[in-house]
Amino acid sequence: MKQISFAQAEHQNKKKVTRRERFLAQMETLVPWQRLIDALSPSYFPNSAGKRGRPPIGLARMLRIYFLQQWYALADEALEDAIYDSQAMRDFVGIDLAVESVPDATTLLRFRHLLEKHALTQRIFEEINAHLAEQGLFMREGTIVDATIVAAAPSTKNQAKQRDPAMKQTKKGNQWYFGLKAHIGVDAVTGLTHSVVATAANVADVTMVSHLVHDDDKRIYGDAGYTGMGKYLDEEKDAPDSRCCVAAKRGAIKKLDDSPM
């Protein structure tokens, strides 16, 4: 049994359980860690027979650190600092500063690049959704669709000193944005995300709806940006059995407010 440090003992004996600790405890139980490790190990531990150098940091630890980065939206350097600062994060990752250090920002960057190179982020998403489905957490009663702009600085350029061709400019309200757009499908009952598609920021929300829903969804809910989505789902216009439930546009609501009725 590993002996705990004085800092860990002091942390465990405190009376208040923080929101971060509660959240991480829930994620410890909810995320199928061993399933993810089994799925990603072939790409993370290729045949290294005869190779020199330090062995890679354990996949289980790097996965937990990667999840922390996504949950708390931290840059690599900020993530490294946060783990040093937070005993709750260190306990979640399994790091004891008395005997080891936190992986540096460069290591975190390389791990993200490894995931991108082998399309492992999509594999992670699929494995987690499969696990949730097996637990009966997807009700399949309906889907809520939405989209959010993932903005980047217009000056962002790649190694060839060119803008990323996948990023485009778009206008929302009176504000212009440059970057990507995440199109998301969420289970209408549980609120769990089951579908994600990334496009350039200028792609219309409604055009991606067919990639976000299930064939057996009873209802599909969207905001005014999804007006006319029945066409993209091969439904007849104004069909009485349409699954589409779209919010009215702001102008139509204003007319109702201004009417004498």
UniProtKB/TrEMBL annotation:
The lineage of its organism: Bacteria, Pseudomonadati, Pseudomonadota, Gammaproteobacteria, Oceanospirillales. GO terms for biological process: DNA transposition. Residues 14-113 form the Transposase InsH N-terminal domain. PANTHER family: TRANSPOSASE INSH FOR INSERTION SEQUENCE ELEMENT IS5A-RELATED (PTHR35604:SF2). It holds the Pfam family DUF772. This is Transposase, IS5 family. GO terms for molecular function: DNA binding; transposase activity. Involved in the transposition of the insertion sequence IS5. InterPro entries: Transpos_IS5, Transposase_11, Transposase_InsH_N. Keywords: DNA recombination, DNA-binding, Transposition. It comes from the Bacteria. It comes from Halomonas korlensis.
